Amino acid sequence: MQSKLDVNANLHLKVSTQLIRPVNITSLTTGDKLWGCYYYYGNKLGASRNLAGLDVLSEINCSRRVPSAILLGVKKCGSQTLTGFLDLHPDVVSRVFPFSENTISSLMENNDAFLKAMPLSTPNEQTFIDMIEIQNDPQFLPHLTTNLNSNTTKYLLILVNPVARAQSDYVHVNVKMKLPQNSKLVKREIMSVWDKKLLHRKEPNVLFKGYRIAGTLERSVLNASGIIDKGNNLIKKGIYYDYVKEILKYVSRDRLLVVDGEQFISEPWLVLRQVEKFLGISSYFKKSFFTKIGKFYCPVFIERPDAGCLKGKGRKKKKIDQKTNKRLQRFFQPYNRKLENLLGEKLSWM
Ligand SMILES: Nc1ncnc2c1ncn2[C@@H]1O[C@H](COP(=O)(O)OS(=O)(=O)O)[C@@H](OP(=O)(O)O)[C@H]1O
User: Fold this and answer.
1) Sulfotransferase domain spans which residues (predicted)?
2) What interface predicted TM-score (ipTM) does this complex get?
């Protein structure tokens, strides 16, 4: 049996630099800004970062540290945005945990590999990771929580109205299905149509990674008998009660913060202040850091040229027809009530 990860464990430079080759300082341009262990830069093609030079890394004691907080969010609820915003806090280094099929199990089974997947941080920074994919594999929750060997690790969730989540996920899955790397999969999956009557039509009629996707959201969420399909991930992922109940088996309530994803859209600075308090970090975010562009607030920071609106978010959605909307709201209501009782708090959309 492998030993548990000590909260004070960190992986020092020798190992970490084998994974990422640090940038040579002379190759940096004037737009680059050093922030913790990384240089950040933005350009027309997007934003990015590079590891700082070895001299800087050793001077400020950069290591890979065990995360002090983990986001166990739900897909399309704003997890990536929250993670991106938190990375702008001077006391935090946050990253989306590098998931791909199977990486989660291999990383969980090997402490060193798990630690190697962490970003570099200084002793003054907390490591925060976004592990939303855990909702697909909640069997890793006991492994994750016991392996961290800490009663101090904090957990977060961000949740939006499950109907809005389904709508966002529907658009997202449609985009993903069309990507070239998925074309083979889609072709294969097209064989497993869910409605033979639709076979002759040129519209989505596929089973794709736990989703049943039809030409519209309305038709996707109802099964052949016209009943809301609880087995379809568009719906299943929005039954937050089941997921939170599972999390609370392993995490005490006082170590779990559930934030309101709808409020995060309208007033991100308020949600970020709530997160700062929960993490016990300095109060940093304020309204003036954000500029509203379209529907969303985007951070503007001269210290971080990579900050800005997130790519691939805010995709256009068709309005859900009123009847289906009402039906879906009614469907989720009892689960939302149960969730409210379980948490002992009511979010704006409940
Ligand atoms: N400030 C800001 N900027 C952009 N997007 C914002 C923001 N705040 C919340 N959101 C909401 O985040 C939704 C995407 O959720 P996730 O980041 O969890 O997506 S993912 O599951 O990780 O792909 C995204 O959903 P879509 O609008 O469907 O893209 C947004 O509703």
Assistant:
1) 69-337
2) 0.97
CA pseudo-torsion sign 10, 253, 268, 315: positive
Band of residue 191 on the pLDDT scale cut at 50, 70, 90: very low
Query: Helix 322-343 crosses helix 162-178 at what angle (to 10 degrees)?
Result: 110
Is 76 a residue of the active site?
yes
Residue 76 alpha carbon to ligand 1 centre in Å:
6
Site to probe by mutation for ligand 1, drawn from 71, 74, 75, 76 as the one with most ligand atoms within 8 Å of Cβ, is 76
Residue 162 CA to its chain's centroid (Å) = 16
Q: What is the pLDDT of residues 130-172, one digit of tens each?
A: 988 888 888 888 888 887 767 889 999 999 999 999 999 999 9
| This prediction's pTM | 0.88
> What is the Å distance from ligand 1's center to 184 Cα?
28
Looking from the CA of residue 85, the nearest atom of ligand 1 is 1
Binding pocket residue ranges, ligand 1, CB within 6 Å: 75-81, 132, 168, 171, 264-265, 268, 296-297, 310, 313-315
The answer to whether 32 touches 3, Cβ cutoff 8 Å, is no
Express as a percent the part of the chain with pLDDT over 90: 47
pLDDT digits (tens, 9 = 90+) for 291-339: 998 889 999 887 888 888 877 777 888 888 999 999 999 999 999 999 9
Q: Which of 295, 336, 305, 318 is nearest to 45 (CA)?
A: 305
Rounded to an integer, what distance in angstroms lies between the CA atom of residue 119 and that of residue 37? 9
Nearest CA to ligand 1 atom 5: 313
